[in-house]
Amino acid sequence: MFHISLSALFTCCVTLILVQWTESKYLEYVTCGSVTKLYNVDLKVRLHSHDVKYGAGSGQQSVTGTEVSEDINSHWEIKPATGKLCKRGEPIKCGTIIRFTHLTTKKNLHSHLFSSPLSNNQEVSAYGNDGEGDSGDHWYVDCGGDYWERDDDIRLKHVDTGAYLMTSTFSYGRPINGQREIAAAQRGPYHSCKLGRYF
After folding, report:
1. Maximum CA pair distance of the chain?
2. How far apart, in Å, do the first and last CA atoms of the chain sit?
3. Which residues are CB-neighbours of 185 under 8 A, at least 6 positions away?
4. How many H helices and E strands in the chain?
5. What is the pLDDT of residues 39-67, one digit of tens each?
6. What pLDDT is recorded for position 198?
7. Are 180 and 64 in contact (CB under 8 A)?
8. What is the mean pLDDT of residues 1-25?
9. Which one of 94, 99, 144, 170 is most buried, by most CB atoms within 10 A?
10. Which tens digit of pLDDT belongs to each residue from 68-122?
11. What is the CATH number of domain 31-197?
């Protein structure tokens, strides 16, 4: 009797250890459904948006870079490409095509062949309604390993145009005074995740 109880206890302990190891293994990854702040490693600004439209170009909602760390308008939810599914909490593989939905306005990080307003690179905007847009919302995760790890520096390549998400050295005046221009270009800097809610 004692032998059976000891065996059952051992099996239970091994199972618990394996479950904890599996869960902790995924804690290091950026996952589908997570909400994060994308941080430009070189210029130290966070990807940001708000209900302010560009005055030229597409006229869509503007996307900027802000140095302010505590700003609710810098939160972006990671979603699968249009028409694809991913389970909440599933690690994002390097090379995956994803979307970023702005948590406050429900518009997607977007690009197209309009010129950006300050640097004359490629415009980056927030587009769509309630998280639904088009193929211009798709970004390729360019990272070095098998999965996008939380402490990785990654690049984001726009699928439709092949340009990389970048922050220019130009800053806006009113009504978004001091915020940096976000654009896309043939060479892009690295971004990392700062803070966020991961599943």
Report:
1. 80
2. 42
3. 121, 122, 163, 164, 166
4. 1, 12
5. 999 999 999 999 999 999 999 999 999 99
6. 53
7. yes
8. 46
9. 99
10. 988 999 999 999 999 999 999 999 999 999 999 999 999 999 999 999 999 999 9
11. 2.80.10.50
Q: Tens of pLDDT along 123-154?
A: 999 999 998 999 999 999 999 999 999 989 99
Of the candidates 77, 182, 76, 173, the one whose C-alpha atom is nearest the C-alpha of residue 122 is: 182
CA dist., res. 83 & res. 64, Å (int):
28
For the chain, the domains span 1-29, 31-197
Q: Is the Cβ–Cβ distance between 160 and 136 less than 8 Å? A: yes
Tokens 């990671």 sit at which residue?
78
Rounded Cα distance, 51 and 74, in Å? 12
> 79: which 2 tokens?
């979603």
The CA distances from residue 81 to 86, 108, 189, in Å, are 9, 11, 22
Q: H-helix or E-strand containing 2?
A: helix 2-26
Residue 141 to residue 148: CA distance in whole angstroms: 8
